[in-house]
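Support request from a user on the community tier.

User writes: "When I paste my structure tokens into the form, the page sometimes reloads and wipes my input. The last time it worked, I copied everything first. Here is what I submitted, just in case something in the input itself triggers the reload:"
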């Protein structure tokens, strides 16, 4: 039996390999002084402790993505953006609320791609004066059009209670529980939807 296991692996090893999904944590702002890197790093730290997926921060600020269709603009980052998104099985969007919606940069980055988003799962972590709730609701409509199944649990961070002086992330303990509950939904949905893409 020992040689058989070495040659073909065990059922447990096979299950572990199958469940290692790639989940991209997308930072949804490019604005100077943004808080999304703090939030993204906090989510990644919590997620990495779970050991149920490969979590990667994807910062849209790292890609040259001018306004879609803008004449003469340098869109040299579009191919790398496509590759980064295509490599993921699911997402966690870090969303900040600007004027009751998502940032223009995030909407633009979403619009750059189509099939790379299709049949994947996503969770949303938002922040703002009312926890970014209105931005999250706008994002849900966009994700539906892109065939991304967003999950119900939605950690919403308040600029008043989860950030010190509105600048340094210090989330209430309940927020970490909320992130884990969200990921408890993202992982099985991402696993199921992966079978559609294969």
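"...and here is what came back when it finally went through:"
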């Amino acid at each position: 039996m020992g040689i058989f296991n070495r040659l073909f692996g065990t059922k447990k090893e096979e299950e572990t390999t199958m469940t290692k999904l790639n989940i991209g944590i997308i930072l949804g702002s490019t604005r100077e002084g943004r808080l999304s890197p703090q939030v993204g790093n906090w989510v990644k730290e919590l997620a990495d402790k779970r050991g149920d997926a490969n979590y990667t921060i994807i910062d849209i600020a790292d890609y040259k993505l001018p306004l879609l269709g803008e004449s003469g603009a340098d869109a040299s980052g579009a191919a790398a953006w496509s590759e980064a998104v295509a490599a993921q099985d699911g997402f966690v969007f870090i969303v900040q609320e600007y004027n009751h919606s998502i940032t223009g940069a995030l909407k633009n980055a979403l619009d750059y791609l189509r099939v790379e988003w299709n049949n994947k799962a996503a969770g949303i972590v938002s922040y703002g004066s009312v926890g970014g709730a209105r931005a999250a609701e706008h994002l849900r409509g966009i994700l539906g059009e892109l065939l991304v199944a967003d999950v119900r649990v939605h950690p919403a961070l308040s600029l008043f209670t989860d950030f010190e002086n509105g600048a340094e992330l210090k989330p209430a303990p309940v927020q970490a529980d909320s992130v884990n509950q969200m990921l408890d939904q993202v992982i099985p949905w991402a696993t199921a939807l992966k079978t559609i893409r294969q």
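Agent notes: The reload is a front-end session timeout and is unrelated to the input. The chain is about 40% helix and 20% strand. Residues 30 and 61 are 5 Å apart (CA to CA). Escalated to web team.
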